[in-house]
Write a structure and sequence with these properties.
Chorismate synthase, AroC fold, five-stranded antiparallel beta sheet
Length: 394
């Protein structure tokens, strides 16, 4: 079971939904980076359970940093953190040891792990494991923010209720900040009201509802990434599909581009008046062309399925009897998992972006110069890299 994400910034998530704790280790963090633990806790609180429209499981999601920080600053060593599980109700999951839940991993996991998997709360397949992912991404977000890179997501739709889409050329800081003051992380009051009503109706019916989330990354320079398996979009998508419940990812115009003509979908270039070089006039590409950033905001969406744990009776099988059976899932579950997934999406995008930025390129873009530190440090590092390359050739 591989639970590590990233090449240069390697985040490993561990634990199960009802184990004593869950956590993560982060290797490759630049040394000398301050981590504001209060801001990190506030970010993680956006993912934490509770509230009128979410599961009533009470977990504070308070991270305990075990190592990797010295007086609040990264020291270059791997950072390790745990989050204690304090509100498990494992008795709610006794039935699923025999009755696998529809659209859950219960039955495939039973075959894959021959009955040795932890079924309580979904075990290693649970959305609970997004808490340490959010922890790691919250640290990455603080590092990126100091480099002028901002990442923000919102719920774009819940069922048939829709928010306005983000401007593909960028959103104002004020608008993005305002989404966090609403009951739901959306850009308009009308969307918050309509989505809340849709979720409340699904919960009352013992059902659940699917949703989409949209995310924007602003401040990335042109020229990051590469073709084929070096693509920034592919690396982000790989992480996003690690979030339980994600069933689709698209960038820019996405699937809508399949109904366009080239003259409609192409992003013309113009000479930039803000910085040397060129910039796209439109952003149907979502900030990526050929796997490489274009300098426009990186924009993507994900589709999240309805929560499969619902109270309504569903068809399943009894593993013990080898016969058909009915199941109504007990326990505390989100009627719409996308609400709490918004910071998880931001965190995953942050880990991917920082991972790409930490990749030493042949030519150092200005954003990477900021990441590496002073010009003297950058030149020293590049000089050492050149010496190593020369030795290898010799």
């Amino acid at each position: 079971m591989n639970t590590t994400y990233g090449r240069n910034l390697r985040t490993t998530v561990f634990g199960q939904s009802h184990s004593a704790a869950i956590g993560c280790t982060i290797e490759g963090l630049p040394a000398g980076e301050a981590v504001d633990l209060e801001r990190l806790a506030a970010f993680m609180a956006r993912r934490a359970p509770g509230g009128r429209l979410a599961t009533q499981r009470k977990e504070p999601d308070a991270p305990e940093i075990l190592c990797g920080l010295l007086e609040g600053v990264t020291c270059g060593a791997p950072l390790a953190a745990v989050i204690r599980n304090t509100n498990q109700r494992s008795q709610d999951y006794k039935a699923i040891a025999d009755l696998p839940r529809p659209s859950h991993a219960d039955l495939p996991a039973q075959v894959r792990y021959q009955g040795h998997q932890d079924v309580r709360g979904g075990g290693a397949f649970s959305g609970r494991l997004t808490a340490p992912l959010t922890l790691a991404g919250g640290i990455a977000l603080q590092i990126l923010e100091r480099r002028g890179i901002r990442i923000a997501a919102h719920v774009l739709s819940v069922g048939e209720a829709e928010d306005r889409p983000m401007n593909p050329m960028g959103e104002s800081a004020a608008e993005l900040e305002k989404r966090l003051t609403r009951e739901l992380p959306v850009l308009t009051d009308e969307a918050a009201e309509a989505m809340a009503q849709t979720i409340a109706l699904a919960r009352k019916a013992g059902d659940s509802v699917g949703a989409t989330i949209e995310c924007i990354v602003e401040g990335l320079p042109c020229g990051l990434g590469g073709p084929l398996f070096e693509g920034v979009d592919g690396r982000i998508a790989f992480g996003l599909f690690g979030i339980p419940g994600v069933k689709g990812v698209d960038f820019g115009a996405g699937f809508a581009a399949a109904r366009m003509k080239g003259s409609e979908n192409n992003d013309p270039w113009e000479v930039s008046t803000e910085a040397p070089g060129a910039r796209p006039l439109t952003n149907n590409a979502g900030g990526i062309a050929g796997g490489i950033t274009t300098g426009a905001p990186l924009l993507f969406r994900i589709a999240m399925k309805p929560t499969p744990s619902i109270a309504l009776a569903q068809k399943t099988i009894s593993l013990e009897k080898g016969a058909d059976a009915d199941l109504g899932v007990r326990g505390r579950h989100d009627p719409c998992i996308a609400l709490r997934a918004v910071p998880v999406v931001e965190a995953t995008a942050a880990l991917a972006v920082l991972d790409v930025l930490l990749e030493p390129p042949a030519v150092m873009p200005e954003a990477l110069t900021r990441l590496w530190g002073s010009e003297a440090l950058r030149l020293g590092a590049m000089e050492r890299l050149g010496e190593c390359t020369k030795k290898n050739k010799d």
